[in-house]
Amino acid sequence: MIGKAKLKNVPITPKKMRMIVNDVKKLSPQEALIKLRFNSRRSSSILLGVIKSALNNLQKIQSINPDKVVLKFKTLKVDEGRKVKRWRAGSRGTPKMFVRRYSHINVEIELVTKENGKNIETKKSVDKNKKDKNNDNKLKKVVNKSVKKVTKKEKDGSKS
To answer: Helices in 62-122 by DSSP H: which ranges?
Structure first.
């Protein structure tokens, strides 16, 4: 299961947001919440709210038992939003342009369960792994058939 949260048109530059996101991306969502609470930057409080929202969305989809569940970030990215051009009076009243940048934040939290000390991926990824195994088995069968045909031809060729 995946919990998603988006926050658009945040009045902070993407560069400032990415400084915090790059530190948090490697952590689990629970550890990220703790780290962001004690960070003094304004962008950390904004990101904290988005991660909390994604966790709440995940809990609405499926009830979570923290002992049997491991959470990780599937995606945590900051995109560039709109740019607003403004001006400020410069020397002798001439207008000097500056740009106010906004950002979009996308957070997806993935649920990974633990059984017998092993991490088991979500259903979709398990299904993909089964498909990969089935494809591998089919390839092995095809290769074995072609090898048998080649060996038969070699044996027939050597006799005549």
So the answer is: none
Angstrom distance (rounded) from CA 65 to CA 23: 26
Contact indicator for 36, 48 with CB cutoff of 8 Å: yes
Please tell me the predicted confidence (pLDDT) of residue 47.
96
CB contact at 8 A, 29 and 64: no
On the 0-12 / 13-18 / 19+ scale of CB atoms within 10 A, 54 is buried
pLDDT of residue 87: 96
Q: Which residue type occupies 51?
A: I
Residue 97 has pLDDT above 70, yes or no: yes
Tokens of 19: 């400084």
| Measured CA angle at 71 (ends 66, 72), to 5 deg | 165
Cα 49 to Cα 12, 94, 126, 127, 132: the distances in Å are: 15, 41, 31, 33, 38
CA 3 – CA 58 distance, rounded (Å): 4
Tell if the pTM clears 0.85, that is, is over it. Answer: no
Tokens matching residue 135: 């494809």
